[in-house]
Amino acid sequence: MSIQKTIRKFIEEEILSLPVHFSDKEKQKEFFQGINSLLTKLSPKYSIKENCISFRVNDSDKRVRLKTARFLTRKLNMQKILTDHQIKILADKIDLWLNPDNYTIKLYSGPEITENYRNAIGGKSCMTGSIADYTRLYEMNPNRISQAVIKFDKDSARAIVWKLDNGTFYMDRVYSNNRILKEILYRYAEKQTWKKYSTDQNTLLYVSGLDYINGYIPYMDTFMYGSITKDNKLCLCSVLKDSFIYELLQTDGYLQEIKDNLICYRCGDEIISENDPYEIVDGDVICENCLEKYYQCCDECSALCDISQMRTTSSDYRHIQSLCFECYGHYCEKQ
Prior knowledge:
Blueprint: H1 3-16, H2 25-42, E1 45-47, E2 52-56, E3 63-66, H3 68-74, H4 84-98, E4 104-108, H5 111-118, H6 136-139, E5 145-152, E6 155-163, E7 169-171, H7 179-191, E8 195-196, E9 206-210, E10 225-228, E11 234-237, E12 246-247, E13 256-257, E14 262-263, E15 270-271, E16 278-279, E17 285-286, H8 288-294, E18 295-297, E19 304-306, E20 311-312, E21 322-323, H9 325-334
Parallel strand pairs: 7-8
Antiparallel strand pairs: 1-2, 2-3, 4-5, 5-6, 6-7, 9-11, 10-11, 10-12, 12-13, 14-15, 16-17, 18-19, 20-21
Helix pairs in contact: 1-4, 3-4
């Protein structure tokens, strides 16, 4: 992508991501066309050595250099629509994208990974800070698990890198508050020919033979299912398979056994409430909705019965009882 297209791309993305209001779509279109015209006229080039943008002066071959933030204000008048802080963020993104020397990417392994979580490298998440020890599964398997970290100024991004059972590598979800750092880290994975994280969770991936201690298991983005082998090794899979009986979706450091939810035999819905399901007389379970609609307690034995099978003992409202079939039979025998 040319320097001109790169600058315009980031300007458009930044403005469209902010609550900047144009009176109508035509005004927005005119604004971006104006930016494009200015960039065409200025013919910007990027100097990696000096970390600045050079541009043509008065349609001549003479060129002047400015730092990226100053170029955005003095030549593209971005101060009319963005704040100084927003311009700085935009300039950082352009510098990051155009100059690889502005950032560093490093792979960590072992205890360094736990320490990165403790220091919230890449931003805070459910596994950073005081509960970083729950991620020690990573440090216990340095031959299979590493962590890619990119740093720029005070910003950073992180991602776990797995060595899969087939010998290839997979970079998991990237965590960062800086969107451009995320993009650069994903681009780095592509250059390494690594597979990379996708919201499509149907891709089957395996990592097996891992050392582990239950209580030091992190929340997983991709490898959500686990199994334990006879020699007490942890195997992870990205898609639920019959032999994988644990979920790794907890933030307390422990494997969670997968349990099938109960099914209401009346309507077929899953009973996912933490409350105990109701039981009917034949031992099946029903949801609370169906209980209220179709079932009633026998006034004599308190058994839960289908309303259609209940019997009323008297037409006298002062002595009416609703009885199950069995209790109604006993009642009739006494009459």
